[in-house]
Write a structure and sequence with these properties.
- The chain starts with a helix and ends with a helix.
- With 112 residues, it is mostly helical.
- Helix 1 crosses helix 2, helix 1 packs across helix 3 and helix 4 crosses helix 5.
- The protein has six helices and no strands.
- The chain has one domain.
Length: 112
Amino acid sequence: MKYTKNQREQLCEVFKKAKVKLKNRKNRGRDQYICFAIYDMLRSEAISETTYILATDLIRCRLCGWNYYEQWLYSNHPELYQEVVEDQTSSRIKAYNSRQAWLDSLVKEFSI
């Protein structure tokens, strides 16, 4: 999808903020997910509803309709999924690191 300059700026900022939010959370339950971090920004009025929809639609599109990174990983790379989920503590750390790396790449992609 083509984004306007303004949309690219909004996406870059929301992904930067999501990265910080995820760093400050426990890596359990809903607190580990990018879309929930973005939703919390919407609830606290740190971003607009338009920006929320733009960012979460992009994430869902990149996850090919899956709700969570782990679901996408299982569907697209079952051999890696098995490695990631063998140890619950290790899997949370690996998933967290993957989400942080993905946010870094999204920030870079949408930087102007």
